[in-house]
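User: quick one - fold this with nicotinamide-adenine-dinucleotide bound?
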Amino acid sequence: MKILVTGGAGFIGSAVVRRAMAQGHEVVNLDALTYAACLDNVADVAALHGYIFEKADIRDAATLARIFADHAPDAVLHLAAESHVDRSIDGPGAFIDTNVTGTYHLLEAARAYWLRKDRCETFRFHHVSTDEVFGSLGAEGLFTEETAYAPNSPYSASKAASDHLVRAWGETYGLPVLLSNCSNNYGPYHFPEKLIPVVILNALASKPIPIYGAGENVRDWLYVEDHAEALLTVLQKGTVGRSYNIGGNAEARNIDLVRMICSLLDEMRPAEHPYEKLITYVEDRPGHDARYAIDASRIRDELGWQPSVTLAEGLRRTVRWYLDNTEWWQALQARDGVGQRLGRV
Ligand code: NAD
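Assistant: Sure. Structure tokens for the protein plus nicotinamide-adenine-dinucleotide:
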């Protein structure tokens, strides 16, 4: 297939680009190169036959039309988004612009192209979303594909809105859409403002490791390369119009996750004191969801996908990667807002 990947210079998008190329697909990587992007993430595939980069903004309808016409993709994997919850609290407008309006423009460009291709039956528009659209769980229960939407942050509300647009374009216009909602990802090339890289990099710099609130918030962690594989599985085998929850089956409280990372660092880069001593509790994020956990039985039973990397193994690989790739993260740490406490009301 020739896949138009949006957001392919970001964290998950670049993993998708690398995996798609490894599977023998052609990739058109469309990315506006915002503060969160890094073309080094796809340096390994950039020179390969079948890879093309388009610097473009999904809010730019004319450019989207040109890109569909020039490249004639067989499918779209839509990941481009503003993705950081704390930034969405400080500046929700960019999240509405890109995640809602941008997704609308992409849907319209895809629909016009699909109509020109005589409603090509094999065309797919796969929208990549998050479990955060479902809101917060109590101590028990899991998010299924039937869980009602109840987003609590500007980020998750904007993603929920985009999910609804995608569904409506499928129902109303017949566009062959697919949707997936995934839990928290981690792994190589994770932008250094997100929790796991912050923990690793602050520890290495002997800076306080900030934990929001009491550190009791629970997330279901998935290694990013498993997510990339899941997305390509849904794209190729998923039933049109259906949504698929994707999760790691690896719930952890933030404080336990941070302790796991500290002990890996104690082993791989021993310091004078255990890294845990740097843990510092800070004011909680407003509207901080207590718990996310995914029931991923649909994608497992219908499409045969399940996570291949345990949390312990994935964290080990991730810590190793950050230790071995200092130039990558040092360059990104200089970007606007990185390393600052964002998202306080
Ligand atoms: P990211 O912030 O690392 O990457 C987003 C990419 O989108 C960047 O390369 C950025 O330049 C690009 N982009 C932003 N605005 C754009 C625009 N207007 N036009 C074109 N490109 C634009 O995000 P990520 O963590 O890789 O997440 C990718 C997708 O997966 C998002 O849609 C996110 O909601 C979803 N998701 C993320 C997670 C997670 O844990 N990170 C979990 C589930 C779902």
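One thing worth noting: The chain has a mean pLDDT of 97.
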